[in-house]
Each structure stands twice: as structure tokens, then as C-alpha cells.
Write a structure and sequence with these properties.
98 residues; alpha+beta; 4-stranded mixed sheet; 41% helix; globular
Length: 98
């Protein structure tokens, strides 16, 4: 996935604000099953929040990078234990600004 422009990132942050996490990374870490659920959630919603149970900021950053690489998604933001991820659907519902 191409990287997002600052305007697109800001727009997606605004859309994500009211959304609830749809996937949780538990004590087992980022497993294949969790990646599959994230991929399915991205296909259904385009923009999702993922809640990470780890208290390690470095682990959460690594998971975000790994998720984006494995799913072809773009990182929107990470606030604490919440990761916001975007991937356009085949027929996009979210229209990004220029």
C-alpha cells in the first residue's frame, strides 16, 4: 500500500475517532489467526482499530509494522495500545481527500 499523505491521515484519524476496536492482540502476541482476523476486518471495514494487550511500546510498534506489511495496509496512527489501520477495499467506501 502506498503511504498516506498528511491530509489523508488526518481525515482517517477523524473517521476512526468514533470507532471501537474490532480485533484484539492478546497475550499470545501477533499470531497467524490474529493476522487473518485483521485481514478479514480490513476487507469488511477498510478502516479499523486494533487493541494490543502488550505493555511494551516497541512490541506494539513492531506489530503495527508487521500487520501493515502482511496485509498491504497503511498505518494511520498508534495511540497507546490502539493501532489504527487503513486498506482500501476493491470498491472503496471511504473516499480519501486528494
Amino acid at each position: 500500500m502506498k503511504s498516506l499523505t498528511p491530509a489523508q491521515r488526518q481525515y482517517l484519524k477523524g473517521l476512526a475517532h468514533t470507532r471501537q476496536p474490532v480485533v484484539m492482540i492478546g497475550n499470545q502476541g501477533l499470531t497467524a489467526a490474529v493476522l487473518k482476523e485483521i485481514d478479514l476486518a480490513l476487507s469488511a471495514h477498510e478502516l479499523i482499530k486494533v487493541k494490543a494487550a502488550s505493555n511494551e511500546p516497541d512490541a506494539r510498534r513492531a506489530w503495527l509494522d508487521e500487520i501493515c506489511a502482511a496485509t498491504g495496509a497503511a498505518s494511520v496512527q498508534q495511540i497507546g495500545k490502539v493501532l489504527v489501520i487503513y486498506r482500501a477495499a476493491a470498491k472503496p467506501v471511504i473516499v480519501l481527500p486528494g
